Each structure stands twice: as C-alpha cells, then as structure tokens.
C-alpha cells in the first residue's frame, strides 16, 4: 500500500543557509537560537527542490533534519512556502545533543521497521559516510554552496560552515546549541 520512502535532509540540501552562517561566528550565548530562528529567510536550493519533486512522484517523502524541534512550525511553513513536497518531518528532539549522523541513522532505522527506505539525500560528508557504512543508499547533495564537498574540512572557506559541520557531527568545536 505505502510507497517506498525517500529521506531528505533540509539545510544544505534544499535550504541555502549562507545568509545565517555569520550568526555562528558571534560570541552571543544565543547564537545557535539566532541561527535556527533565521531559517525562515532561507532561499531554496533549486537542485535540491528539483530532486525532491522528482522523488515525490513515486516515493513518500520524509524530511530528516538536525534542526531542533523547537522550530518545527517555522520549518513546516518554509517547506510549504517553497512548494516542496509534503512529508513527515523528523527533527532533533529537545535535549538530544548527539551528533547528527548518529541521530539520523537511528531515525532511519526506526523508519525501516515499517517502510522501505530506498533513498537518502544529505549534503554532509560525514553523515553520508556514516549512513553508507551502515549499508544505506545515500545520494550526496553536492550543490550546496557552503558544504565541504569532499569531507575535507580544511577546504571550507566560511568559519560558520566549519562550526555548523562540527556541530552537526559532534566531533569538536563549538558549544552545542541550547536545549531550551
Ligand atoms: Mg544538511
């Protein structure tokens, strides 16, 4: 009855976050909240949107993002405003400080109990590597203007991008965002 599932990331896959990366370079204690709150102003990434529409023709879409659940309504509104295909929206739960790659693998494995996950699209090289190592079918979004393309952080120009990548993967770097 249900169709095969395609799991899509948001930031760096369909959303262009460049305009808010500078917020992560500040010393403000609210910088992570400010960074996520600004997500409503993201431009859509056309390559990501095109792929999402193609997939939606014969897949159920699940949006899987490291964004905090706190901005769920903002994120739902943004997806709708961009005309992106509707789907379940899975976000980082409040207080969950684990790296994005760990949380994403867990959420996908939960999906697999009841669905056939045939495609995952994500721009973060370390998320991509982690999911592939678990045997999952991952298509890496390479069109993001700011993501480290080859998993080499030294290539990344803007400081904010390094911060974001570090945060999402939980390896080093900045203080994690507040849980509240
Ligand atoms: Mg991403």
From TrEMBL:
<dbReference type="InterPro" id="IPR023214">
    <property type="entry name" value="HAD_sf"/>
</dbReference>
<feature type="region of interest" description="Disordered">
    <location>
        <begin position="145"/>
        <end position="180"/>
    </location>
</feature>
<dbReference type="Pfam" id="PF25109">
    <property type="entry name" value="HAD_PNKP"/>
</dbReference>
<dbReference type="InterPro" id="IPR056782">
    <property type="entry name" value="HAD_PNKP"/>
</dbReference>
<protein>
    <recommendedName>
        <fullName>Polynucleotide kinase PNKP phosphatase domain-containing protein</fullName>
    </recommendedName>
</protein>
<dbReference type="InterPro" id="IPR036412">
    <property type="entry name" value="HAD-like_sf"/>
</dbReference>
<feature type="domain" description="Polynucleotide kinase PNKP phosphatase">
    <location>
        <begin position="7"/>
        <end position="141"/>
    </location>
</feature>
